[in-house]
């Protein structure tokens, strides 16, 4: 496969980091993005460059329109036009609370970071992808997002991601004839260090909440993204893919 330029938002750590490493291992040039994790981004950049591909790290908050424009401008100037866009970044409030207990600023931040920012990023890269008749766009959701069920105590986050479900499907249809695929990845509840682990590292671990019986790893997510970015994956578009070991985050697994 011809080397492509992949931009992964929120990629200094966690699932974004594993995605960047996986795409780099396939020979793609990588644009890392971070907000505060400058040290981690610099270390990852060195690691990826040692793999024989180009890599840059750009600080930008993708919740803000002006920062999105600056991010894309810098990637295009230093690497070239974006072929693969992985929208990994997005704020999440783990504390469970009723919608009425959210501050207005928190509501706007969650919507901007998980829905509006993603749409604006897609909008910026589409013209270049259309010109080359090739593109891969990946969105991130949550398990069973496609069902649009009620998720008490997660109202804002769920609303943003469910809106992104519809956008994913619509954009996939609109851009299919241009050789651009658009899919959504819905990870299970992968926490902490497991986000940067490989499958072999978690095989011996036990997770009583997941029907599969083991926790998820960063590799579980990154390998699916890498598959969707392959040349011959052009017939896979508009899909909302749960990668969760069978876990339903809204209705917990009961043995």
Question: What key phrases describe this protein's structure?
Answer:
255 residues; alpha/beta; Rossmann fold; seven-stranded parallel beta sheet; 7 helices; 15% strand; globular
Explain how this protein is built.
This protein is an alpha/beta fold and 255 residues long. The protein is 40% helix and 15% strand. It has one domain: NAD(P)-binding Rossmann-like Domain (Rossmann fold). Strands 3-2-1-4-5-6-7 form a 7-stranded parallel beta sheet, sandwiched between helices. α1 (14-25) crosses α7 and α4 (104-132) runs parallel beside α5 (155-175). The N and C termini lie far apart (44 Å). The model has no long low-confidence stretch (mean pLDDT 94). This is 3-oxoacyl-[acyl-carrier protein] reductase. One of its GO terms (molecular function) is 3-oxoacyl-[acyl-carrier-protein] reductase (NADPH) activity. Its EC number is 1.1.1.100.
């Amino acid at each position: 496969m011809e080397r492509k330029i992949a931009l992964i938002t929120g990629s200094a750590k966690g699932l974004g980091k594993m995605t960047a490493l996986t795409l780099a291992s396939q020979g793609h040039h990588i644009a890392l993005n971070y907000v505060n994790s400058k040290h981690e981004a610099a270390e990852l950049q060195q690691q990826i460059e040692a793999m024989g591909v180009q890599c840059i790290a750009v600080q930008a908050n993708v919740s803000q329109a002006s920062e999105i424009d600056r991010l894309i401008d810098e990637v295009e100037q230093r690497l070239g036009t974006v072929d693969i866009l992985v929208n990994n970044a997005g704020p999440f409030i783990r504390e469970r609370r009723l919608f009425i207990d959210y501050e207005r600023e928190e509501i706007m931040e969650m919507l901007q970071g998980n829905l509006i920012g993603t749409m604006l990023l897609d909008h910026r890269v589409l013209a270049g992808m259309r010109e080359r008749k090739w593109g891969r766009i990946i969105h991130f959701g949550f398990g069973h997002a496609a069902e649009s069920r009620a998720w008490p105590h997660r109202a804002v986050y769920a609303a943003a991601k469910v809106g992104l479900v519809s956008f994913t499907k619509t954009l996939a249809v609109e851009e299919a004839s241009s050789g651009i695929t658009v899919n959504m990845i819905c990870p299970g509840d992968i926490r902490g260090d497991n986000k940067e682990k490989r499958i072999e590292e978690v095989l011996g671990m036990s997770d009583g909440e997941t029907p599969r019986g083991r926790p998820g790893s960063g590799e579980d997510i990154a390998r699916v993204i890498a598959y969707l970015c392959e040349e011959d994956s052009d017939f896979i578009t508009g899909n909302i893919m749960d990668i969760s070991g069978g876990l339903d985050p809204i209705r917990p697994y009961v043995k």
